[in-house]
Amino acid sequence: MRSFRAALTAAATAAASVGLALTGTGTAQAATPLPAHVFAPYFEAWTGESPAALAAQSGAKHLTMAFLQTASKGSCTPYWNGDTDMPVAASTFGSDIKTIQSNGGDVIPSFGGYTADTTGTEIADSCTDVQQIAAAYEKVITTYDISRLDMDIEVDSLDNTAGIDRRNKAIKLVQDWAAANGRKVEISYTLPTTTHGPGDTGVALLRNAVSNGARIDVVNLMTFDYYDNQPHDMAKDTQTAAQGLVDTLAELYPGKTSAQLWSMVGVTEMPGVDDFGPAETFTLANATTVYNWAVSKGINTLSFWALQRDNGSCPGGAAADNCSGIQQNTWDFTHIFAPFTGGGSTQPTNDFSVALSPDSGTVTAGKSATATVKTAVTAGQAQTVNLSVSGAPAGVTASLSPASVTAGGSATLTLATTSATASGTYHVTVTGTSASGSHSARYALTVTGGSGNQCTAAPWAKDKVYTGDQQVSHKGHTWKAKWWTTGEEPGTTGEWGVWQDLGPC
User: Which residues, in sequence order, are bridge partners of residue 388?
Assistant: First the structure.
């Protein structure tokens, strides 16, 4: 499953008991409501990265901030990631959130998550005082001046009926407080799902909300991690899961129209390979299908776990917090989903992707290697893509046939070596360029039996300690350490890792 990390004062408790949350730095004035249709990917708040910076880089104006939980079981005080150094205060993410809001976006703080839900630190599981739970919710709302809270309730928390009842009672108190202060506050529940809708425990949670008079504005299904050992079309499974949810909501809210029920739906995908493995892979083509479906149905929220995974730095890998495990360009999924905010009435601007199949090969010096350069339309319409190749070392001739394709077409990359090519591993980059920009993919060519010059830097040693600026050779490349390291293999730590690739040698 996803790996997540994540005592109000007596005065605050008293304030909550009379329906006023005076904690936090904000006021009870109304925050700007979220759009009726919003794309809000999850941001992993424990990474030390700036949410405002990643929002600007990716183009995601709205973020779901994960997660808020207590530092220990039995506590009533939430912290970001359960870290007491990250309190609910302007000093933690305050300036980032203000920047996001000033740029026309907002954040959705999310309580819970897998770790909190399995350790008793989800606040409604941890705290038995409904008034203090409500006061904690209100403090987050006023501190960051936001208009929606998310409750990510999974595994053990779904079985904690006492916690479910406390949470929904606290939500009702918050909604009464918000109404009394002229403030709009929305509540979303993020829940696991089957391919045909939420399970029995999820339905029971929603039924309890209705019985407590707690208004649930959005039910956000995690349409991944099915763990059912079945074949999956992830886009189709999203649609059948959402239909099952709407059928459930129709029973819980018999007075709502079909359009109103669909407007309560949210879906959260997991780009690329999810925790189950390659059998549950959400592709860029799936994303385009889900986007078009979401627009047609008029659902409320599109999201994915998580913004930091929206890159192709680990193609062929397993699920990870920082990459998708598939061939893609950075922010591909974000660019497909981003136009959904505000109504999804505009189609994404033209864009494409470039991938290589295979993306690596081994040849004896004097022989040639080939790979298929695959392009695909990831947004908008097909366009002409001009292809080029760079990074070929001495003794290797690279060619592309054809050198220009229409997005969706393919070409052949040929890498011809000579007997004088030095043995080693080389990374050759194929770049596609069109009117919308450029995207690249890399091919790892390993040459054996060559008679050319070898690397001069000392070979990397697993047990040796390296400090900043020290150089090593490894797999035909020279690498420079950016800082102190030991045991980290060059070529495995990614673009932002400790080893800088200085190129083939």
Answer: 431
pLDDT at 395: 86
DSSP letter (8 states) at residue 238: H
Chain centroid, CA 429 distance in Å: 26
The gap from C-alpha 35 to its chain's centroid, in whole angstroms, comes to 20
Helix axes 234-252 and 200-211, enclosed angle (nearest 10): 30
Domains (range + CATH), the chain: 16-345 (3.20.20.80), 352-448 (2.60.40.10), 465-504 (2.10.10.20)
The one-letter code for the residue type at 288 is T
Segment (H or E) for 98: helix 94-102
Give the pLDDT of residue 312: 92
SS3 of residue 210 by DSSP:
helix
Distance CA 131, CA 414 (A): 68
Q: Is the peptide bond before 67 cis (omega within 30 degrees of 0)?
A: yes
Q: Is 456 exposed, middle or buried (0-12, 13-18, 19+ CB in 10 A)?
A: exposed
Helix (H/G/I), strand (E/B), else coil: 212: coil
* Residue in the block written with tokens 């050779």: 473
Q: Which residues pair with 459 in a beta bridge?
A: 473
Contact 105, 55 (CB under 8 A): yes
Residue 43 three-state SS: strand
Residue 337: pLDDT band (50, 70, 90) is very high
Other beta carbons less than 10 A from residue 293's beta carbon: 16
Q: Which long-range contacts (CB under 8 A, 24 or more apart) does 459-466 make?
A: 460/489, 460/490, 462/487, 462/489, 463/487
Buried b (16+ CB within 10 A) or exposed e, 75-109: bbbbbbbbeeebbbbeebbbebbebbbeeebbbbb
* Per-residue buried b or exposed e for 321-355, using 16+ beta carbons within 10 Å of the residue's own CB: eebbbbbbbbbbbbbbbbbbbeebeeebebbbbbb
Cβ atoms within 10 Å of 420's Cβ, excluding its own: 13
pTM: 0.69
Q: Which residues contact 117 (CB under 8 A, 6 or more apart)?
A: 125, 152, 153, 154, 155, 156, 157, 158
Pairing of strands 437-448, 424-434: antiparallel
Could you please report the per-residue DSSP string of 262-315?
HTTEEEEE-BEEETTEEEEEE-HHHHHHHHHHHHHHT-SEEEES-GGG-S-SST
Asked if pLDDT for residue 386 goes beyond 60, the answer is: yes
